[in-house]
């Protein structure tokens, strides 16, 4: 009976931390290789592959799209998570309204300044939670966190959230990106602990 009154409330945050993850203090930076320094004046974003027309966007094209705020949890496969990261950006669905996908498009490769790549199925890419971010906690996104623009795919491990993204290549079959070729999982769902392999 007493237990009913003295039971420690379950931490609501604990339910939001996927298995095998711990909460990071601060917001760690995780980059393979050098950090590209790209000015918005020279920034370009290309869409090619299984699309009706190859398109190139500049910074003002992107900034003319509807902007939204997002508060999402962030999970790195190296076992740190950060809850309630606040971003400003553009929904993938708002951007994709400008793109004519061919019916055979089933997958997408993200390309970045610096050469990093990571793959998604079209379905994972078109997930309604996904967005391109250019601000972090109300400040311009710094180069170490992927500025001027990164993708954020909150429902998958953060290696699927390309920093310095500068292109989308739509594909009619699966190709693997940088970490996926190096043994990481092709999908990367943190709730299923899809860390490695997946073949
Ligand atoms: N271009 C690029 N994007 C990247 C990476 C990278 O090395 N290069 N690292 C990924 C990994 S493993 C993680 S955990 C997140 C880290 O984002 P952060 O440095 O902003 O915390 O970016 C992802 N996106
Ligand atoms: Mo990561």
Automatic annotation (TrEMBL):
Q: Where are its TM segments located? A: none
Q: Which InterPro entries match?
A: OxRdtase_Mopterin-bd_dom, OxRdtase_Mopterin-bd_sf
Q: Which domain of life is it from?
A: Bacteria
Which residue numbers delimit the Oxidoreductase molybdopterin-binding domain? 33-179
Q: Which Pfam families match?
A: Oxidored_molyb
Q: What is this protein's name?
A: Oxidoreductase molybdopterin-binding domain-containing protein
């Amino acid at each position: 009976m007493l237990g009913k009154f003295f039971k420690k409330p379950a931490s609501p945050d604990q339910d939001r931390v996927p298995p095998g993850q711990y909460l990071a203090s601060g917001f760690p930076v995780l980059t393979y290789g050098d950090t590209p320094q790209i000015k918005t004046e020279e920034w370009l974003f290309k869409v090619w592959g299984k699309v009706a027309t190859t398109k190139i966007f500049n910074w003002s094209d992107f900034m003319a799209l509807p902007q939204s705020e997002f508060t999402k949890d962030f999970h790195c496969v190296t076992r740190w998570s950060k809850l309630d990261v606040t971003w400003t950006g553009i929904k993938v669905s708002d951007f994709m309204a400008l793109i004519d996908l061919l019916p055979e498009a089933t997958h997408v490769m993200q390309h970045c300044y610096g050469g990093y790549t990571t793959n998604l199925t079209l379905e994972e890419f078109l997930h309604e939670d996904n967005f391109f971010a250019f601000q972090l906690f109300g400040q311009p996104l710094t180069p170490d966190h992927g500025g001027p623009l990164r993708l954020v795919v909150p429902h998958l491990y953060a290696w699927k959230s390309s920093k310095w993204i500068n292109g989308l290549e739509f594909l009619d079959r699966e190709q693997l990106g940088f970490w996926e070729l190096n043994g990481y999982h092709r999908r990367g769902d943190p709730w299923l602990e899809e860390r490695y392999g997946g073949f």
